Structure formats: C-alpha cells, structure tokens
Predict the structure.
Amino acid sequence: MERILFGDNQFFAVNHISDEKSRAQSIRFKDDSAIIKTLDYAIEAGINTFMCTTHDRIGNICDIIRANPDKYKGFKIFPCMPYAHKYANAVTELGIMGTLKEYVPGNFFGSLFKGGVAYLSKDYLSIMELMIDAEMKMFKGIDTPVIFLQNVITDLLLGLRMNEMLVAYHKYVQKKYNAEAGFITMNMPKLLKVLQDAGIENPIICSSINKVGFRMSGGKEIYEHTLKTNTFRAIAMQVLAGGAVSPREALEYVCRLPNIESILFGASSRGNIQETANLIHQFDQQFNIKSVI
Amino acid sequence: MVKVGLIGAGKMGLSHLSILGAHPDVNVVGVCDTSKMVTDVLEKYGSFNGFSDYKKMLEKTNPDAVVVAVPTKFHAIIVKDLLERGIHVFAEKPFCLNASQGEELVKLASARKLINQVGYHNKFIGNFTEVKRLIDGGYLGDIYHFVGESYGPVVIKKKQDTWRSDPAEGGGCLMDYASHVIDLLNYLLAPVTKVHGAILKPIYSTGVEDAVYALLELSTKLTGVLSVNWSDETYRKMSTSITVIGTKGKIIADASEIRIFLKEETNSGYSKGWSTKYITDLTEPVDFYLRGEEYSAQLDYFIRAIEGKVPNTINTFESAWLTDKAIDLIKNTK
C-alpha cells in the first residue's frame, strides 16, 4: 500500500462535525467532473490510490477511469463495502428479509425460501458472496488490490462474535478478486486480536487514529500500545479528527507513531491536498532520520 | 456478570446484541426472534442461544435483564410479563402504543424496584447533554421559544407496506421518528402538556403520516414548534436538531455541532457572541463502538444501573411514558 491514500467522504457530503459543511460539499461535488478534477489534484500530489465507498456515483467515476486508461495508468481503487446507509434505510423500511430480497441478486434468495430448503451453513456465506459480487460489479477492469469491509459491518460482526464471517470475507475476496481483504473498524485492538486468533497473518486494518482520541474505542493508549507491540498493516483514518486539531499537529502525531503503513485523508481543494501530502512527507523524513540516528 | 436476554433481533435488536456481545460485564444468555433464519445465523456463526418463543427463553436461561426490540405493539404485553417475573427491562422506543398502556408499566416497574430504561439514545449524545447544562445553568436568560426538528430519508417513494406503515402497530413518522424529538424536548426543557395545532401529513405513505408539524406547549408554559419529516432525502441519515432562544442567548444544536450565541460574558465556558463546539470535543469515549457512542453508552448505563453503579434516572419508563402522552396529544389534535 502507498503511504498516502485518498478518501471520498468529501464527495458524498460526509462531514463528521458539520452538517453545514456537508451541504457545501454536496453542492461542490454535484457533477462527476468535479470529483474527477479533485482526483486529478490528488494524482498531481503523488497519491495514486483512491479508497472509496461503493456509492452509486462511484460507478460513474469508474466509467471515466476505464475510458482513460493512459491517464489513469497505475491508479488503484480500494473499494469499501457496503454503502451502509443504502442498507440501513432499507432495513428500517423493509425489515431484514425485505432488504435481502431487494438487494441479493438473482433468484437465489427466492429459491432458498420458496421450497423451505434446509438452511445449510454454506448458504449464508453464499448470500454474503453474492452481495460482495453485486458491490464489486462497478469496479470491473479496475485495479482493486485491497477490498475493505466497512466499519459498521466489521464491528457488527465483531460484537456478534461472528469471527467466521470475517474470515470468510477475507478468503472470498482473495479467491474471487485476487485481492487482499481490508477491515475498517472503530475497535482496532479488539478486531486485531480476533483476526490474529483466527490465523489471519498481518491483516490490513483501517481505524480512527488521531491526537484527540476521537473514535478510538477503549482509549488512545490501548491503540498506541497495540501499534507498538503487534505486526499488522495499519491505516490511520480520521487523522484530523473532524478538524479538532490543526493539520500540522494532527499529522505530526500520526507520522510519529510506529507501524502505520498508510494514512487516509480526504480533501476538496488542490491546496489542501498538496499541503497535507507535503506535511506527511515532511514529518516522515524528519522522524525517519531521527530513528536512524 | 449480568445475564441478558434479547427479544427481537431486527435492526435495533442486532445492534444492541452486538454491543452487548462485546460488553465485558454482560453474558448474553439467549436471543429470541420470530425469524428462524435470523436465530439460525446467530446460533451458527455467533454461538448465541436462539429461541422462537420468548417465554421458553426466559424459563431456560433465567436472565437478570432483557432488551426488548420488537415492534411497538408487542411492547406492553412483553414488558409487563418481564416485570412480573422480576426482570430488569430495556425497551426500544417508542415505549408503548399509547399512554394508558405505559402507565401500568411505570407503576409496575417502580413497585417491583426494577431497572427500567427506554432507548431514546439522543440523551447520551455529548452535544445534547451540553445543551441541557447550558439551559439548566440559565445562560440563555428567559427562554421564550424552541424548535425541535428531525429529517431523514426513510420513506422516499411509494412502497410496500410494513408494520411501520400501520398506525395501529406503532408505525408512522410521529411514533417512529418524531418521538425522538419530543423526548429530547421533554428532557431539555419540560414535558409537552398541550398541543395548539398539528398537521400529520402523508407524503408517500397511504396509511400513516410521513411528516409531523405541530405547535407545542410545555408544562412551564413555554411554547415552540415541532417539525419532523422522514421523507426528506436531502438528508443522508436521520438528523435531529434543537433550537432554543431566550432573552440572553440562543443555541442551535445537532449531533455534530453546537452553535451558541450569548449576549453577555458568562461563566458558561463560552464567550460573548457566537461560539461553536463540535461533537469531537463533547463525546465521552466508549469501550466498543458500533454506530455511534450513544448506542454503546445507553446500554452501558443500563448494565451499570443493574450493577448499582449509576442511578436509574435517564430514559426511565416514566420519561418515555411522558413522551407517549405527548404523542397521544398530537394524534388527538383536531
């Protein structure tokens, strides 16, 4: 994985601290061309990986990337599935069964229930596989070396102790897409332990890591300790903690931590993207030199 | 360890189950749902004990506490049964279909001295507890108006009917969505005791309202506006906000930020003029996070109340019953 990954929250009006900012972003990125333009700024800043939700609009972005193979040579996407609000709103309205009927493709689901077919362990995993395939359709022909499970699902399964499902996801993504599974979580230390116990070596885990301890369940100290004492590929997200600390202070904290392979951030303007990338490189250089001495 | 059972493993039930499953002081002894598929999956992959009959679950597992997350129409009968068996109860919101159902349960829980809580999670959001502090501290002067709002994209086209579209089963925007705002107003200001006019507007639904607009009066005579619409797709997810204005200042707060205007310098922690504070400053961290700190915090509070570590004062049956009463008032406004 590259040191810097470019995120997509800003494109879909996701702002953790302000609904007003969300609205402004939603206007700014109304047209797909505005998203592409911003991705191009990221590429200009040397960032070649876009980590994004399987939102419907990403489908359009994928079309543009496919149509311009030369321009996007070497460009990678890390899909994050599922786009949770689509399902959450559907579950509120249709219930769990209704949602599955609506979103699991093909007649598989209908036939499973019509005849009162025995529920075999394998069938539930097949449902998951079909849903992964449905979410992955839009990325056909695009390089997706890591495929992430969104935190709401990772953490739901974690709390439900459905470790086998997490492992099944890991295996399926590898087998079908020749990709590595990544897990987004708000409970990094707990998840790491579960994955390690299940025999998954060196897992890719993306979690909130920031100076103010925002969304670091159990506390910042446990996170720092976990990073120091374990082998895994950590990605830090929400490094700016929604803007609670200055970018310089926020990035210095993250760059100083051991064992963080990548930093995920999203920004809208060319200046902010460039500045963030520069700061990361600057701190990396500073701390690497220190550690050598 | 507190032995906990769950009845109803739908969207909220599964969310509660996951949080309870990760709680260090909780032993989930059983899960009951009418869907065989759901209990099957939970048994097979989550190693929970699944049941299709809640009475059987109670007899076999003997829980100290039960979380009830079934459709509202079943709340009264199940909660009553649980209380009579001496079991602590956490029930999902809204509490009951009407205030008369809830009244009996409030009395029963109090008589049996059982921990009782309802899932109005907004009270566990740091921003709203901060608003409560500022209102109670008198920093806004004489409060003369409020606006409680909530918008979100639940029903955004005509679709098949579910229990949520049947008012007899606790469906509709008033009971499902507006209840959150009413409950928050009750908590922050004072209970709603009079309704001066209400519009229950269907937009896409046929059996129930998709929006609620009402003029409310509180027990303190303070008046204000309720505006709730669950068919508003300009919102990505449910967004609840409260505006309170008084002679010395004004607060506009939602789950992400608080904006406050103060006419004078005070010892409130905010300076004169406009200030903003974000949820990142006001959230207490939790041990396990699923969909928001508040969901973990409310269940943790329930468990700690059972353990005797905190008083059972937030989101009691009584406070949820006052919300049910306000819902009745809005429903009965001509």
In short: Chain B has a mean pLDDT of 95. The two ends of chain B are 51 Å apart (CA to CA). Residues 198 and 332 of chain B are 9 Å apart (CA to CA).
